[in-house]
Design brief:
The protein is mostly helical. It is 74% helix and 0% strand.
């Protein structure tokens, strides 16, 4: 039997959350799915709440800090960074295996936040960090009314996540580029 890391458990829990919601994130079914005993889980986590906290931290790290790092490394120009971020975020809104961003995961965390204060606090923190980063890019690119445009662009992305989760097709690249151009005031 292979040894699992805490990260393996978190990834499995995140997938289960994205697929079936927070109530489906349970130790015994995850252990069966991973082909290990519950003892493996307790080696890394004291209880289910600790796993759920780790899942929220994973969401913060991968879906926010990791994306910002990737965008920052791609260009020095704030306008280019904004366009790259918009393309990355909208292209990966549907999630799926290996996606940098996962709209299913994002939507599942938001659904969880509707009835759990811990998840709600995480959503508020992530939304604040993401909106602040968009505002910083827009301000750096000289966009007019950067706070309002950042809020609209971010909420458009959340709407894309919700629509894709409900089976809608992806917004095409030209529309994403037009949205980014509008946000930049061009």
């Amino acid at each position: 039997m292979a040894s699992l890391s805490a990260a393996d458990w978190v990834r499995a829990a995140a997938e289960r959350l994205a697929a079936d919601g927070v109530d489906a994130v349970r130790v015994e079914p995850l252990a069966r799915e991973l082909g290990v005993s519950k003892g493996s889980f307790y080696w890394h986590f004291g209880d289910r709440a600790a796993l759920l906290d780790a899942v929220l931290e994973h969401w913060r790290t991968v879906g926010t800090a990791g994306v910002i790092t990737r965008v920052e490394e791609a260009s020095d120009d704030p306008a280019d960074r904004l366009l790259g971020l918009a393309r990355l975020a909208f292209e990966h809104a549907g999630g799926g295996p290996g996606a940098v961003l996962d709209g299913r995961f994002d939507g599942a965390v938001r659904a969880w936040a509707a009835h759990d204060a811990r998840a709600r606090d995480a959503v508020h923190a992530v939304d604040g960090a993401r909106a602040a980063y968009l505002e910083r890019l827009l301000t750096g690119a000289g966009a007019p009314d950067a706070p309002r445009r950042a809020a609209i662009l971010y909420r458009a992305l959340l709407g894309e996540y919700a629509m894709r989760n409900a089976g809608a097709g992806a917004l095409d690249r030209r529309a994403v580029d037009d949205l980014a151009a509008w946000a930049l005031g061009r």
